[in-house]
Design goal:
By secondary structure, this protein is mainly α. It contains 4 helices and no strands.
Length: 112
């Protein structure tokens, strides 16, 4: 995912990231089910030490692609749609600087 940087491909990246996230969530649910079965048999639960780390690593990428895709879709509406439909509060919310600052800090943590 670190090489997925072509802005023109953001919608494709989002679909791939959503698909990967869905698979990770399904795997997480299976792990929980395995642990429940292990407990019901009186066995020690199997530990999956990287599971939380992998799920956490996926979040900023998914959030980035969702935010970028949403912005690109809305940008087209803002620039090429009817001006009468524009709502300044909606635009301000969609371009909330805090979202981008949070994403930047999450990626900085991963780099360092």
């Amino acid at each position: 995912m670190k090489t997925w940087g072509d802005v023109a491909e953001v919608s494709r990246y989002l679909k791939k990231a959503q698909s990967l996230d869905a698979k990770l969530q399904a795997a997480n649910e299976k792990i929980d089910a395995f642990n429940v079965e292990e407990t019901s048999f009186g066995w020690e639960q199997t530990s999956y030490p990287r599971r939380a780390e992998i799920l956490a690593a996926m979040k900023p990428f998914l959030s980035l692609y969702e935010t970028a895709n949403d912005f690109e879709t809305k940008r087209n509406d803002w620039l090429f749609g009817p001006r009468a439909d524009l709502q300044p509060d909606d635009i301000e919310q969609a371009t909330d600087h805090a979202v981008f600052v949070k994403l930047e800090s999450e990626f900085q943590l991963k780099i360092n």
